[in-house]
Amino acid sequence: MRPITIKAIKFHPISLPYVEPFRTSFGEEPFKAAVLVELTTEEGVTGWGEAAVETKPGYGPETMITALHILPHFVSTRLVGKTINHPTEIPAMIRAVRGNNHAKAGVEAAVWDAFAKANDMRLVELFESCLSEDHRSRGYATVGVSIGIRPTVEATVEIIQKRVDQGYKRIKLKIEPGWDVELAKGVRAAFPDVMLMLDANSAYTLADADHLKQLDAYNLLMIEQPLGHEDIYQHSLLQPQLQTPICLDESIKSADDLRLAIKVGACRILNLKPARVGGFTESLEIYKFCVEHEIPLWIGGMLETGVGRAGNTAFASLPGVTLPCDISATDRYFKQDISEPPFVLSPDSTLPVPEGPGIGVEVLSDRVEKAEADWQERDPFA
Ligand code: OSB
Ligand code: MG
Questions:
Q1: Global pTM?
Q2: Considering the domain 4-120+363-378, what is its CATH architecture?
């Protein structure tokens, strides 16, 4: 494959209004924020990536401000002027920058996009070329929808009905102490057969084990990240007490974290967010491990713009991704995205992988400019 030489990397902090607020156990983000990465090569190709960070250190420790500190000062400096023979070289080149996976994943994604475009390939074809012959893309991602904490069970049932009517076949509900068993009971009564799961975003401790056991009564697909965001050990003590499979999200930041979690029985399912593990290179290693060990795998989301969504959809179309993903249609998040075309849900609860070269969506510079101006007017500490 043709190498690329990185000429320049630009960072665009942006914000976009959400169509509706999204509350989790760690709080509410008032608007969508992200750092878009625009990478140009000496060959004249432009690649885009999205650093999926939020305004507050709620999901993980990174924020918009930490990404804007780390990326230009520590990541760009290691990459600009360098010739890249394959995007999988990037993690080693920025390994000296500890942590900051979401920020680094944004740059890595821009390299994947540019490299695919420079080689006249779709991003999904580039992923396939890293896997064995039997791992061809399905051409679409099977998806569900993640629903935030609402004031009442009735309001939750109402929004689930709307999502089911739109065609989403898997529903994920955010929970927190005081908003769990009654919610699951009420929702199960209204939707006896829907594929249902819960996400606690680390809101519980092992002392809640007896309380969490009550959730076994509601035929849940899984419970995501009940305990500490860095914990693996306590989850290994909780899983044997539950029938419901535990899925880890926050705790798994690398393939080695997953190897440990599986070894000690901390989870049975993985939510893989390419952003959380530092990008697609580490994601491919995790993918191969899950295939080899028959670990049910799905791709999570960070309410990404079209740039992040395009890459995640491509990855989620690989056959080793066996459960519905947290990648919903554009209109579930934004009135207008920064890229075109929007992602539209098919009736069978799938999203097609974009067709064009690289990530396959076009980033519109006037929309990026507008979203950057919007960010400048926001209080970054709101
Ligand atoms: O825990 O999966 C999570 C969004 C922001 C931070 C954490 C999470 C989420 C979601 C949204 O659940 C999933 C999506 O992008 O639709
Ligand atoms: Mg989660």
A1: 0.98
A2: 2-Layer Sandwich (3.30)
